[in-house]
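for the recovery benchmark. tokens below, seq after
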């Protein structure tokens, strides 16, 4: 006897019952991203490890402990992508996409991999929808990207969502602030968690988004980065005015430093209070320094990434279209069975979702099967109906039956079911 093999912990199957939700969410992502002028890009699922270390930063959770890294047969270190931006920027530089105005707004949808402790809303393989808008320093680019994020969640009618924004300033402003923050934290070092104590010197900003209660208490009254903005103060003001102008509600959150090193200036995050501890459904920011870090020409950019599993877990029923109506064909007998198989094909050729059973069971069993499959109509076609050139059409909700000509059955049903709900 063989033992059963299960999927890896934290890595989930997406089963057929869940797929309509995925189709709705991914459909909205494709539709809205295109509507905002973004074009799809598909980047590899694994890359040279160095790409992620250099772009995400050595003292981040992702690089320190979450990457799936392995050696290729020739010893090259490779990593399963933990996020999308690094790969997209690598592709933009490699293919010169920044030179073409038609390829400066890109989006992607696909799986990411992080070795985290699996729990509700946190998986080791999860899916993100993300966009990257490159080449513009304008605060309007920030507003466009945030507006798309907000519209995506609003279109899906996600409950209790909140947008928070912050500015991390440009590197010199941040440097100045880091010194102030470090002095503040040093005075309270005994109260910080081990992780924060260790990272504080290299990256005091990380302490601001530590989830440990005591660390949060310490940073509650820490100096706020926004008060130290100079060169980028106007940009942040303009972003805020732009959001207000479009009626997008937001609040300021000075803790919002994001878990990746490449961010600068605007950062933002959307949370839903309908979720538990892992309540961030999408987040992003400006990353004007990343292109240079990856060996490209300095290029401003801003983007976001959305966690699709978390979105799907709070997607309301009202966002779901009705499923495509199904027609079940119950055929019997030497004539009825072959005729019903031809009818099945004729219905499908007209775009009608149709199903049958090949075992020639009793009518009672077939009707039960049609019910379990959720059929809207059942067509009954035995030898007798076949000889009369007719079929019985049974409405599975009202149980009413009528007789219609066999030849015209495909057209009659195609017309009656003319409400295509394809995802
Ligand atoms: P978190 O604070 O939840 O760890 P993060 O800052 O690591 O999030 P990002 O790298 O900004 O997350 O990724 C963007 C989005 O992807 C998150 O807001 C979240 O919705 C989703 N996400 C991140 N990690 C996971 C995961 N392990 N499982 C499921 N979704 C995730
Ligand atoms: Mg994380």
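predicted aa per position
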């Amino acid at each position: 006897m063989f033992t059963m093999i299960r999927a890896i912990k934290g890595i989930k199957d997406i089963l057929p019952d869940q797929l309509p939700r995925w189709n709705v969410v991914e459909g909205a992502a494709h539709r809205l991203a295109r509507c905002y002028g973004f074009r799809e890009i598909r980047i590899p699922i694994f890359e040279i490890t160095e790409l992620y270390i250099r772009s995400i930063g050595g003292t981040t959770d992702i690089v320190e402990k979450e990457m799936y890294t392995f050696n290729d047969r020739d010893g090259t270190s490779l990593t399963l992508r933990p996020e999308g931006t690094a790969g997209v920027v690598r592709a933009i530089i490699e293919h010169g996409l920044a030179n073409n105005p038609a390829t400066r707004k890109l989006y992607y949808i696909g799986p990411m991999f992080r070795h985290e402790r699996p729990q509700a809303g946190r998986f080791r393989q999860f899916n993100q929808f993300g966009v990257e808008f490159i080449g513009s320093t304008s605060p309007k680019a920030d507003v466009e990207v945030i507006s798309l994020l907000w519209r995506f969640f609003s279109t899906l009618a996600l409950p209790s969502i909140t947008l928070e924004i912050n500015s991390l300033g440009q590197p010199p402003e941040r440097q100045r602030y880091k010194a102030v923050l470090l002095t503040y934290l040093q005075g309270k070092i005994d109260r910080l968690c081990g992780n924060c104590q260790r990272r504080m010197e290299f990256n005091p900003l990380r302490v601001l988004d530590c989830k440990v209660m005591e660390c949060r208490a310490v940073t509650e009254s820490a100096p706020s980065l926004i008060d130290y903005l100079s060169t980028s103060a106007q940009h942040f003001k303009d972003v805020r005015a732009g959001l207000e102008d479009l009626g997008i509600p937001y609040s300021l959150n000075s803790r919002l430093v994001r878990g990746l090193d490449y961010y600068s200036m605007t950062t933002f995050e959307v949370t839903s209070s309908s979720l538990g501890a892992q309540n961030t459904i999408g987040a992003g920011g400006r990353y004007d320094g990343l292109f240079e870090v990856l060996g490209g020409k300095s290029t401003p950019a801003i983007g976001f990434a959305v966690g699709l599993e978390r979105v799907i877990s709070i997607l309301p029923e009202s966002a779901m279209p009705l499923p495509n109506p199904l027609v079940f064909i119950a055929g019997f007998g030497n004539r009825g069975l072959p005729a019903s198989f031809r009818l099945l094909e004729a219905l499908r050729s007209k775009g009608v979702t149709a199903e049958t059973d090949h075992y020639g069971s009793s009518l009672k069993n077939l009707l039960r099967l049609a019910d379990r499959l959720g059929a809207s109509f059942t067509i009954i076609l035995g030898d007798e109906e076949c000889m009369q050139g007719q079929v019985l059409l049974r409405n599975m909700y009202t149980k009413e039956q009528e007789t219609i000509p066999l030849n015209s059955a495909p057209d009659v049903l195609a017309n009656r079911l003319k409400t295509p709900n394809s995802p």
